[in-house]
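User: Teach me something about this protein's shape.
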Amino acid sequence: MKAFFESLSVPPEVLEKLIISIIFFIVLTLIKFLSNLIVRKRVKDDKKAYSWNRAIVYIYTVLLIILIGSVWVKGMKSLTTFLGLASAGLAIAMHDTIANLAGWFYIMSVKPFKVGDRIEVDHIIGDVIDLRILQFSMVECGNWVDADQSTGRIIHIPNSKAITGAIANYEIGFKYIWNEVPVLITFESDWKKAKELINKVSDENVLHLSQGAQQQIRKAAKKYLIFYDKLTPIVYTTVKESGVLLTLRYLVSPRLRRNSEHQIWEALLDALDKEDNIQLAYPTKRTYMSEAYQLPGVKNNKQ
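Assistant: First, the predicted structure itself:
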């Protein structure tokens, strides 16, 4: 290797630094490989194994930068001058990379989210599965799939989005969301009885999902101004063009949203099937004909 570099007329001091840098790189890479191998064999819990692997990568990266950087900084008159020139050049040539590094420091220090959290950033909803120095990864939720369920796609987002964009976290502070199930019934239906049925169905199927919410609010109120007077399910009444709208509003964990709606609708459909005076509404048209426009031989003027 030395003869190869000498054939390229590389100065001896540069050659020495190159050789030392390569040695550092090989040794640290070998240590990183052995460390990951030990973690895979010793740590059986997937979450703990992931945390250890991430820590090993961060330590490896920092040591690599420090050791190799110290080799090349030697011989310069002023470290301050070197850092000034390097930072100016990097700021121009690697603007996006520096922004992503700043985003990584922000994520690590402020912790707007962590691995396992469900978040929305840049109009994308997903579960965070990986945090890297330049980007973080999410399993996408929603999009063409209803009720925020997973689409199966993995999306990689630059860390700079954590600084420049708005982040909605489903997990930090108050770990529940309000979900609503609209039930539209006809004007002729007994809406009061329908409301009683919906309340009964919610008590049997979703009331238990909000247990612990009060404790969560008290805990979150220490850091955030979060207050709710009513945490139990409630049914609101509204009149729409096609009928009476009864909207069930309840607390649920984000990951149980679709399953809770499924249970509510199955129980509600079974209950409504037993009632003759309650009918679900749908868009209809009614035509009334006056006697002046009644066709000959037609006795009933309402169709």
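Now, about its shape. The domain at 114-169 is CATH 2.30.30.60 (SH3 type barrels.). The two ends are 96 Å apart (CA to CA). If you'd like, I can walk through any region in more detail.
User: That's plenty for now, thanks!
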